[in-house]
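Thread amino acids onto this structure.
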């Protein structure tokens, strides 16, 4: 959500930000609604003054024993006019809120311009790609051959884009989750949190999924929404709060299932578990002082990178272009892990600085030390990381010619000391 005062003062800058997102200029429409709304509010104040004066005149007339019928008629007329003006004010305020709620965050100046992922810029790479003396297989080929991934059984239960995992692959999936949570809480200073998986409309509005992206979500018959990411409940922990400056930064993490309809992904990644309706993810959320959000984005990204470094997985970090960023993001750094089976880098984490965009929608503020007023916090979120995609990366990077999978050293304590997953595991 944008600051109306900022749009009034910098309409051209506002439109340039929209243009970088591939959108038409909207400042004139916003300012027209804003002007009309402010005029109605001014009219309401004038009517309030008139009513007060007329009510005072009625009281004085009655004290003098005079007929106050005329003044009472005036008050009745003013009340009718006020009711009409209040209705018009609500209508204009609603239209203005709806218009602003549908506009994405403005990109940061250092975000590259572009229409899609081809314009993303590589910041850095890490690790060496494994070299095999055999043809690398994809995760689903490995998992099915081991008898530990069953997509047919999942389809019988739930349809496409689900998987049933068994035995050591299921344990490896759980081990990754525990390893990530332990790393982020013990070494990176995040507080482990267990949030609800079902939320109400206003919670998704606060982080920007609603009203525009309802088709990407799952909704229950009694108006709950299944969370698409733990970012939603974790960020909303600061909603409607005024935090002390000393409480910042607030860093929280959670391991949750995530539910997505993948409405726009028809035909994409239909094999395997790369893009599913249900998956687990360790989420990182930071609520920070506005002066610290840019450095916090780098810190958060490094925390996510540490997961892949400990697992020995090669990856690269990309700055997303304006056309590839999410709705609420001002700047996003993606971590893409190498998948030998696909022969490609694939996104495993997105870390985004949303500035005050979500905070304005949620009314999340803090009180600066020594100041009377409040300011909006800055919010950041990132995957630390997607568990299913990390499982895919481990399986493909640690595969062996005989179809077995070596277990990374960092995970062996979580696997009861197991060093490899074999067909008879």
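Threaded sequence (425 positions):
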């Amino acid at each position: 959500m944008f600051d109306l005062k900022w749009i009034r003062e910098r309409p051209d800058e506002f439109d340039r930000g929209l243009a970088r997102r591939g959108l038409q200029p909207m400042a004139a429409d916003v300012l027209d609604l804003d002007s009309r709304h402010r005029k109605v509010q001014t009219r309401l104040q004038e009517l309030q003054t008139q009513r007060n004066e007329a009510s005072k005149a009625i009281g004085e007339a009655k004290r003098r024993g005079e007929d106050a019928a005329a003044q009472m008629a005036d008050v009745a007329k003013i009340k009718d006019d006020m009711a009409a003006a209040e209705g018009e004010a609500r209508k204009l305020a609603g239209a203005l809120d709806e218009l602003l709620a549908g506009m994405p965050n403005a990109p940061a100046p250092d975000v590259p311009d572009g229409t899609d992922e081809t314009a993303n810029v590589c910041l850095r790479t890490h690790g060496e790609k494994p070299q095999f003396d055999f043809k690398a297989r994809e995760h689903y080929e490995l998992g099915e051959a081991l008898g530990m991934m069953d997509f047919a059984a999942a389809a019988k239960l739930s349809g496409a884009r689900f998987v049933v995992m068994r035995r050591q692959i299921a344990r490896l999936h759980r081990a990754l989750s525990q390893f990530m949570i332990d790393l982020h809480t013990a070494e990176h200073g995040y507080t482990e949190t267990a949030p609800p998986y079902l939320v109400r409309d206003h919670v998704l509005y606060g982080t920007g999924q609603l009203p525009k992206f309802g088709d990407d979500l799952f909704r229950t018959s009694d108006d709950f929404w299944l969370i698409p990411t733990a970012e939603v409940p974790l960020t909303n922990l600061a909603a409607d709060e005024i935090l002390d400056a000393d409480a910042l930064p607030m860093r929280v993490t959670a391991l949750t299932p995530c539910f997505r309809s993948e409405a726009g992904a028809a035909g994409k990644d239909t094999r395997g578990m790369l893009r599913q309706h249900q998956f687990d993810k360790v989420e990182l959320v930071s609520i920070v002082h506005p002066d610290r959000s840019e450095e916090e984005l780098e810190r958060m990204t490094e925390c996510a990178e540490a997961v892949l470094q400990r697992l020995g997985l090669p990856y690269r970090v990309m700055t997303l272009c304006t056309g590839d960023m999410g709705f609420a993001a001002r700047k996003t750094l993606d971590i893409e892990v190498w998948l030998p089976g696909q022969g490609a880098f694939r996104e495993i984490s997105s870390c985004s600085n949303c500035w005050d965009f979500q905070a304005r929608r949620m009314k999340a503020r803090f009180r600066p030390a020594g100041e009377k007023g409040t300011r909006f916090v800055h919010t950041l979120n990132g995957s630390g990381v997607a568990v299913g995609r990390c499982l895919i990366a481990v399986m493909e990077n640690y595969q062996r010619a005989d179809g077995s999978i070596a277990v990374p050293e960092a995970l062996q304590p979580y696997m009861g000391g197991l060093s490899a997953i074999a067909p008879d595991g």
